[in-house]
Design brief:
By secondary structure, the protein is mainly alpha-helical. It is about 30% helix and about 5% strand. The longest helix has 14 residues.
């Protein structure tokens, strides 16, 4: 038995629902096929040197109000960060 009531809302049963045929069966999910390939170590090293580490945020300047908000968020979340730390490096 499935509970269909939540906060006063009662979901209609499936036989009461009328779904237009042009959207029936569409979930919005589009399957993706992975394209994996192994590259030689030398090429990987060249890519690492060429691409670098990306943006680090160095040299960015934020308004004082933004800095206060960020510090506040860090203080609030600090007791919880250990729960979300990875158990091992990937």
């Amino acid at each position: 038995m499935v509970c269909r009531e939540m906060n006063g809302y009662v979901a209609p049963s499936m036989d009461q629902m009328q779904i237009p045929e042009d959207v029936s069966g569409r979930t919005g999910f589009t399957p993706v096929q992975p394209e994996e390939q192994q590259i030689p170590d030398q090429e990987a090293q060249n890519l690492k040197e060429t691409l670098g580490s990306g943006e680090t945020g160095e040299g960015c300047h934020f308004p004082q109000r933004s800095i206060r908000i960020i510090r506040c968020c860090r203080r609030i979340s600090s007791p919880y960060t250990d729960r979300f730390m990875p158990t091992h490096r990937t």
